[in-house]
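Hello,

Our lab assistant flagged a job as stuck in the queue for most of the afternoon. It eventually completed. Since we weren't sure the result was trustworthy after the delay, we are filing this so someone can double-check. Below is the sequence as submitted and the structure that was eventually returned. Let us know if re-running is recommended.
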Amino acid sequence: MRSNGVLVISTYLKETDAAYRRLSYFIKYFRSKGLKVLCAGFLRISRHGVIKPSNKCYKISILVSTAFFDLLINFILSLYVIVVIFIFRPRVILLSIPDSYPAFATYLGSLLTGSKLFIDIRDPQEEIMAHKYKKGFSGLVVRIYRQVNYNLYKRAHVITGVTKTLAITLSKKLGKVVYLVPNGADLRIFKPADKKLARARFGIDQDALVVGYVGFISSRGYYNILPILLAIRRVRRRLNANIKLAVAGPIYDDSVKRIIEYFIEELQYIGVLSTRDVVTFLSACDIGVIPRVDDPIYDYAVPTKFYEYVAIGLPLIVMANRGSELSRIVENNKIGFVCEPQDHVCLERAIITLVMNKSWLNEFRKNVLGFRKYVDRKIGAERLFRLIERLTFDNKNGI
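-- returned structure --
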């Protein structure tokens, strides 16, 4: 284990988590290159119950919900990571963030065992927390927490970010190179299937224009399906059009259940799906929607669902701020519509365009299929493997 082992640590290793799909792909890729790789995750206790990591990963310890006042508790609970690192004594530790609670314990474990520390940042948790808690005691605690973690990150051997904007921003804040290791989709799994059969599988109307959404469903957070539902309702009534929003994913609060009941004609809820079923579900759709909120703190992000929609060949309706990385990708490659999150008129216009002129959908789909090769998750896996190989296992260039 010591000679070439990699230990992957993450708080999000449930098999339906987007983070797990990213990390499990990396693990398989590293193993195909001859590395011994293990993964370790946490049991998470939240208001939605106990969330367990995949059975393919070791269970380290317990974390409680990610509310602000749980920060200190989670910091203490994560210290067991040190014991885990001592047991496995890996050559390389890959810590995936968020959550960043295990950062101190992981860093300390890497020091004590001489392991090389790689930090893979999918979302800048410290910046998001600082944006949310700006004043008073909470703001002070978060600023201290951010400063402590950033000092740890500076001492990591390698830091990676999932988007160009995130890598550049973190590099400036840390004064350290942050390598781009993009997210993506496993193109061997995420590929178009027969639409007619896919719709039959989930009981979706064969004649409807189907807008698809995969992800968690909440009245809070940074995905909000309500604007797209309202736009679909108005277009349905105005044009007497057969349009549906089909949704797959976990429901995070009771408000969403009421929304589903209220929009019974416009929305079809499919439930929580396995990865294989997500592929079939997306194949049943005509277009994918990413319903982002307008807070600019998230303008760095390109969600996993973007890559998976593109891999299936779905054009996009994206609700994102102009100038955000997501909006630039969609507009520059002509793979869908971009509307500001609060621009309901733009949403309606996009849906009307699709209903009235199917050539738009066909043109977007052609562009999406041409762009598909650029969302291969293998691209990020190869970059990360080269970093591990060059900076850790190469005796001439090793650190």
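-- support follow-up --
The delay was a queue issue, not a problem with the job. The result is valid. The domain at 5-184+376-393 is CATH 3.40.50.2000 (Rossmann fold). The first helix runs from residue 18 to 32.
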